[in-house]
Amino acid sequence: MILYGFWRSIATMRVRTGLALKGLAADELPVDLLRGDQFEESFRAVNPARAVPALVPVEGAPALFQSMAILEWLEETHPQPPFLPHDAAGRARVRGLALIAAADTHPLSVPRVRSELAQRFGADERAVQNWVQHFIMEGATSLEGHLCREAETGEFCHGNVSGLADICLFSLKAQADMFEVDLTPWPTVRRIAARCAEIEAFASSHPTRQPGAPHRHSVFP
Amino acid sequence: MILYGFWRSIATMRVRTGLALKGLAADELPVDLLRGDQFEESFRAVNPARAVPALVPVEGAPALFQSMAILEWLEETHPQPPFLPHDAAGRARVRGLALIAAADTHPLSVPRVRSELAQRFGADERAVQNWVQHFIMEGATSLEGHLCREAETGEFCHGNVSGLADICLFSLKAQADMFEVDLTPWPTVRRIAARCAEIEAFASSHPTRQPGAPHRHSVFP
User: Fold this and answer.
1) Which end is more exposed in chain A, N or C (fewer Cβ atoms within 10 Å of the end residue's Cβ)?
2) Is-contact B208 B51, C-beta < 8 A?
3) Per the CB < 8 Å rule, is A99 touching B146?
4) What residues of A are in contact with residue B1 (Cβ under 8 Å)?
5) ipTM above 0.90?
6) Residue B206 burial (10 A CB sphere; 0-12, 13-18, 19+)
7) What are the pLDDT digits (tens) for B9-23?
8) CB contact, 8 Å: A35 with chain B?
């Protein structure tokens, strides 16, 4: 499999974790989002949405796109170990938690959004960082609101086995790391993120562990 | 079933369409997002993420949350008629298209984002509308890039039966209607949206058809 990704892409990170949890290997091809590689014609042929990740399952096949759709595909084609519980209500809860991070939080901090803030409103680095921090904190509040009060929460988001919600919660933690948000006010989110970090499939997917990552990087390299 | 929603909520609209396609009825309880009803304690008990939609499947059960998780739950608990094709690659394509609208486009136009633009950057109504229009056009471009060139595209996004991707594409069309984006430059998106509008399950879910909708409304009532 070929995974088009970028070292600091939070959505690529989710697919990386998913592949690792399923015990699958993919060759990662870098698409530099900060340089704008995603807008080149050659990449638009891979993914017309001009975004990573894109996963080519076998040579010549069309690329799968959108991290959450790729993770569902992984679950359907490689059921073990499962990302989702067996009962419909549990699956809805796990998907809902996952989407709080992946759909309600992460899209507000991607390069194209940060760039529009700068261009349209003259937002400087600090103002952009504050914007991103605000929405990461909102996402953490929403997750904590569920996790701290619901009986299904265990060692991980849903019981004592990691899954789709943990992949996304841990990607929110990576966002928080990059944009310097301290998760102390959200103790259950923080605890589960720390538990995930003990597992190599999670830890190895973190942006700072990727080959393209600088030893020290600012939020806006 | 009880659906907590709001007449102009694009995410509520998706669940409304899904319920109607499955032939299910839910009583809709309004949560006025513009007045801030979602932040009240009574609603936080229903959905700690302070967002609609939230679907209570049976009295006393916890609310399902996040429109895409609710739609997957509907598909699993009420398989007929299906929202998703049977093959894993097709399911990944349909979910990917759906998420371009639901995760990459829609979250950038919700009230909490518009409100932050106004508060942080002094964006006026016109600037906020331009921001939303930009991301709707980006979403339409990404969808069109897939739909216009892929053999799976038919009368609807994936073949000749409507499904999850069409629910989300039609919700992007409703966003475009509300924020005054003309979809003419994206002919396949426009054609499929028009085809959906011929079906009552889609048409009846549109914000302008809801009891709470004013006869004439501005984008910022």
Assistant:
1) C
2) no
3) no
4) none
5) yes
6) buried
7) 999 999 999 999 999
8) no
